[in-house]
Amino acid sequence: MILDVQTGMDNAILREQSTPVENIDREIKKLIRDMKATIGPNHGIGLAAPQVGVNKRIILINLPSDHFDESGCEIAPLDKHIVLINPEITWSSSEQVLFEEGCLSLPDFFAEVLRPERVKFTALDEKGNVIEAEAEGIFARVLQHEIDHLNGVLFADKLANLHMKQPDKLYI
Ligand code: CO
Question: Measured in angstroms, how far is the CA atom of residue 108 from the centroid of ligand 1?
Answer without folding.
Answer: 12
